[in-house]
Amino acid sequence: MASIRFNLKPIAGNRMQIRAVFQDGSKQTFKYTGYSIPSSKIKSEYKYWDKQKQLTKVLDNSGVINSLIEKWKSDFTLYKDECKRLQKKVNVDQFIKSLAGEEIIKDVPTLLSVFSMFLASIKVTHKSTTYNGYNVIKGKLEKFQKEKKKEILVSNVDRSFYKDFSLFLMQSEGNTNATILRREGKIATVLSYAIEYFKIKNVHEDYQKVYKLKTAPSSKFPLYPEELATLKAYKSKNEYHTMVLDSFLLACETGLRHSDIIQLQPAHIHSHVTPNGIIKFIKLANIKTDNSNDMPLSEFACKIVDKYAENNSGNLFRFQHSQAAGKVLKKIFKLTEVNLDRPCEMIKIQGTKSERKTVPLYDIISFHMARNTYITRLLSANVPAVFVKNNAGHRDLSTTMSYFRNEDINRWQETLKVLNQ
Hints:
The chain has helices at about 60-85, 90-100, 110-120, 130-150, 160-175, 175-195, 225-235, 240-255, 260, 300-310, 320-335, 370-380, 385-390, 395-400, 405-420, and strands spanning about 5-10, 15-25, 25-40, 40, 45, 50, 55, 270-275, 275-285, 290-295, 345-350, 355-360. The longest helix has 24 residues, at about 60-85.
């Protein structure tokens, strides 16, 4: 009876090669899976290999390796069943040839070649901003590689690589720690994608363990109630500015991200009859998380939606880029009749050095400030946090609570009332 099992064979560098063993009577045929693991042992048991289950364990990429092992087991079972149905003899060599489509890349690829593969795969499926973001990092890696005067292989990506790359971004690009960590996170994403979809082998186990850098406290600045009231009362003569401000105010009333606001259509507006009257709400799938979400609409939000939904079957708001919207909002915030210049403290951390500076609110305005405002308004009014979490479309409550800055401010103010008497 033909069978398949998996075992380990020692190779150079204190590693063990994972092999498939096909047994057909007295004949044994071996097939390399394309993966290897460290040969560490705890007593007689391998630290990273479960001999009984014939699967890897503990490793960061165990899921990828084990999914391939399970697939080969399943495919071989299906192949044997098909041979039995057709009354054919099982031919192990023929089956191994059928695995050619699963052939692992034999040479260790360069990090830049993996980036090229990744960029080609997302060019059609992802937005241009996402594509451009990864393309920028590829350009940084090209500069880094040129400075090092050697190609960076995927197997070179470990903690020391991230440390050197961090120092390069600080010294030559002037990046802060938060920016560096975001960029390193994207490199780990590209490698994960390459391992799963392109079957990249010989990836260092530390490829996702980035060099630890300090990060500045989250700079979330919600609008105060009086500032929001000022914006609601402002009337612009510029039609485009009015549309951007209305979309921002709608986000303050619903917590929608910019990516969701620009996809909003009349078809996303629904009504529900309750004993207390009709409630209008927005129901749509969030672009960022792909979760379906619904947010009730306030009277003010209904006015904005009705204004743009009238005689409009397409998107309610006709603009695309959040940066362009941010520039318009900055102009509005700086106007004399609006004058939203509240001082805000920013912390910049570069390596071990930190710098604090105070900037006016209009200098740091972004469309996402509306989401901060929405969450803070509800939590400040003692709306149950789980309700706010569901409205915001967060998976975890801790994410929702990270937006709540007024709690600190109120605590400070109440404390100082006593201490300053």
